[in-house]
Amino acid sequence: MADSNETTINLVVFGRTQTGKSAVGNSLLGSLDFESRCSPSSVTTSCSLGRSCRISGIIRRNGRELSLRVQVLDTPAYPHTGLSKEHVRDTVRSALAHHFGKEGLHLALLVVRADLPLCPDESDHTTQFIQELLGPTWKDFTAVLLTHADKAEEAGFSEEAYLHRASSTLLSLLSLVQHKYIFLNNQKSIIKEERAIVLRKLLSFVRQNNYQIL
């Protein structure tokens, strides 16, 4: 990322149907760019790029504040209720090349529901899918976003208690991505202060990679 008055980070969101993937994209952008609703079938059928307005108060460099822009590529769910794996993979691969081919991708966000157990097959299929798209270094450029954390809190789980009781499958996934994860409270994710906290965490993950891109 060039040293200027503005910094842009490029993100792509992956996840299964009804994990809140598109809603996460909207929260990060501070908009309603992506269709997000409760449905018995997959809602998103194509890739879509959203771009935020300038965001202030998030990032400083060399003693001065920079404006931040966030670009988010929303993708169809995998597995998808109406599209084959090959179709989803080819669609996402084409969109990544089209939108981020020159600028590069900073971080892939794997969206997982915190209020539902993560099964081994589900995790294996998803990580294999991401690896096919991003290559062998995918783990360095992937973070896990645990949505519906408010429901876990309502059940009496703090973040520490949740991880203590989490399945070995989820813990293995978090270990794979070097513990880059964020708990998202769906009731607060649209609040400006909550959004700023999440964006700062994502920027810290990008800095861990020394601003490298895929």
Automatic annotation (TrEMBL):
Give all residue intervals belonging to the AIG1-type G domain.
Answer: 6-214
Record's keyword terms, sorted: GTP-binding, Nucleotide-binding
* Stored Pfam families: AIG1
Q: Does the keyword GTP-binding apply?
A: yes
The entry lists its GO molecular-function terms as: GTP binding
Database matches in InterPro entries: G_AIG1 (IPR006703), GIMA/IAN/Toc (IPR045058), P-loop_NTPase (IPR027417)
Matching entries from Gene3D superfamilies are given as: P-loop containing nucleotide triphosphate hydrolases
Family in the record: Belongs to the TRAFAC class TrmE-Era-EngA-EngB-Septin-like GTPase superfamily. AIG1/Toc34/Toc159-like paraseptin GTPase family. IAN subfamily.
Name by which UniProt lists this protein: GTPase IMAP family member GIMD1
Protein species of origin: Eubucco bourcierii (red-headed barbet)
Gene name for this UniProt entry: Gimd1
